[in-house]
Design brief:
Strand order of the largest sheet: 6-7-8-3-9-10
CATH superfamily of the domain at 2-91 and 162-242: P-loop containing nucleotide triphosphate hydrolases
GO molecular function: ATP binding; ATP hydrolysis activity; phosphate transmembrane transporter activity
Protein name: Phosphate ABC transporter ATP-binding protein
Number of helices: 10
GO cellular component, one term: membrane
CATH class of the domain at 2-91 and 162-242: Alpha Beta
CATH architecture of the domain at 2-91 and 162-242: 3-Layer(aba) Sandwich
Strand content: 25-35%
CATH topology of the domain at 2-91 and 162-242: Rossmann fold
Radius of gyration: 18 Å
Shape: globular
Organism: Paraconexibacter algicola
Bound molecules: adenosine-5'-triphosphate
InterPro entries: AAA+_ATPase (IPR003593), ABC_transporter-like_ATP-bd (IPR003439), ABC_transporter-like_CS (IPR017871), P-loop_NTPase (IPR027417), PstB-like (IPR005670)
């Protein structure tokens, strides 16, 4: 995926200013920067969620596999570029049905429960949750712990076999143990899906990211490997931010 000269404004306020950044397959890209610098807006634009905000306007191009995302049917785009939010938001239905939902929505023919069992379990396995819920697939998803609910949301996103997974501060509502589990999961997932994560947690970005984009006041100030951005930042602003001097 590639973002090219992207500018997004809410009314008069420019939230993302002329950003060009690649999203590479097989990698985790972390977007970091102080509050309000445009990370979430950039993330949400990748599958056109910013269109849901009436005041948002956009210029520049976003390409998925060389195709302009504006030319793709939006439901299909959101299956290929899938989003997991800050607060786990499973549907008020069983664990099984949460994941099956994504699969049922896919084809023209509605598969039955039997046919769905294998792909549902496969998505749960890839989200690192199957072992914990195997015997409780019919239990309400809302009875799971917060960390399990977040992995269920990841399983739901993975079920549609997306090419890109967008994670908006996925651990901010979780305890340290669940956070560690999800970080391990993200590192494994990059083999099957490109991951873009917004995080305030610089240690987290260092632990899991291959590339890092540092944003400030809507601009992409610096983009590089995690090692370079954290240990040899080129810009003074990046240096100040990663050393904890502001933000
Ligand atoms: N729906 C909206 N309407 C108007 N302004 C918005 C809207 N969403 C975000 N903004 C503004 O756009 C700018 C960028 O916000 P955004 O949420 O993308 O930043 P962020 O870096 O993700 O912040 P945070 O780290 O606090 O989540 C901010 O000034 C914010 O106030």
């Amino acid at each position: 995926m590639r973002v090219d000269g992207l500018t997004i404004a809410y009314g008069e306020k420019v939230a993302v200013n002329n950003v060009t950044i690649p999203v590479r397959q097989g990698e985790v890209l972390a977007l970091i920067g102080p509050s309000g610098c445009g990370k979430t807006t950039l993330l949400r634009s990748l599958n056109r969620l910013t269109e849901l905000t009436a005041t948002a306007t956009r210029s520049g191009r976003i390409l998925l596999d060389g195709e302009d995302v504006d030319l793709l049917e939006v439901t299909r785009l959101r299956r290929r570029v899938s989003m997991v939010f800050q607060q786990p938001n499973p549907f008020p239905m069983s664990v099984f049905d949460n994941v099956a939902y994504a699969l049922r929505e896919q084809g023209s023919k509605r598969p039955g429960k039997k046919e769905l069992r294998e792909p549902v379990e496969d998505a749960l396995r890839r989200a690192g949750l199957l072992r914990e819920v195997q015997d409780d697939l019919d239990h309400p998803a809302l009875r799971l712990s917060g960390g399990q609910q977040q992995r269920l949301c990841i399983a739901r996103a993975l079920a549609a076999r997306p090419e890109v997974l967008l994670l908006d501060e996925p651990c901010s509502a979780l305890d340290p143990q669940s956070t560690a589990t999800i970080e391990d999961l993200i590192v494994q997932l990059r083999e099957e899906v490109a991951v873009v994560i917004v995080t305030h947690n610089l240690q987290q970005a260092q632990r899991i990211a291959d590339h890092v984009g540092f944003m400030y006041l809507g601009e992409l100030v610096e983009y590089g490997t995690a090692d370079q951005v954290f240990h040899r930042p080129r810009a003074r602003r990046t240096q100040d931010y990663v050393s904890g001097e502001f933000g």
